Amino acid sequence: MQISGIHHVAIIASDYQRSRRFYTELLGLAIVAETYREQRDSYKLDLRTPDGVQIELFSFPSPPPRPSRPEACGLRHLAFRVPDVAAAVQELRGQGIAVEDIRIDEFTGKRFTFFADPDGLPLELYEQ
């Protein structure tokens, strides 16, 4: 097997319009396609980061909540690369998004921090 990178990450939102706004307007991800799937009563929004990784944002009627705290088994968080963590934190806080204090990765010396999407999905900003 020769994995060449990550193609996409899929996220299920409890409130599609709220999450759509968060990922497109606040985080600035580009919309690739948006599809309403009538047979599932579900939207699928394909988003793209500047480096080409895609995020699939889904809506489904009444999805169960994701266990998060204490840390549940499974995907821990989704990390986004940014050129300047402090500037990104300031931008998010300016939009009313709660962001943890910036920390230093003890192994790489890089700055990082965490925040959450509208459903509490843990997101990380990691400095390039």
From TrEMBL:
Keywords: Lyase, Metal-binding. Residues 5-128 form the VOC domain. Its EC number is 4.4.1.5. Transmembrane segments: none annotated. InterPro entries: Fosfomycin_Res_Enzymes, Glyas_Bleomycin-R_OHBP_Dase, Glyas_Fos-R_dOase_dom, VOC_core, YwkD-like_dom. Signal peptide: none annotated. Pfam families: Glyoxalase. GO terms for molecular function: lactoylglutathione lyase activity; metal ion binding. The keyword Translocase does not apply. It comes from the Bacteria. It is an enzyme of class 4 (lyase). PANTHER family: FOSFOMYCIN RESISTANCE PROTEIN FOSX, LYASE, PUTATIVE-RELATED-RELATED. This is Glyoxylase I family protein. It comes from Collimonas fungivorans (strain Ter331).
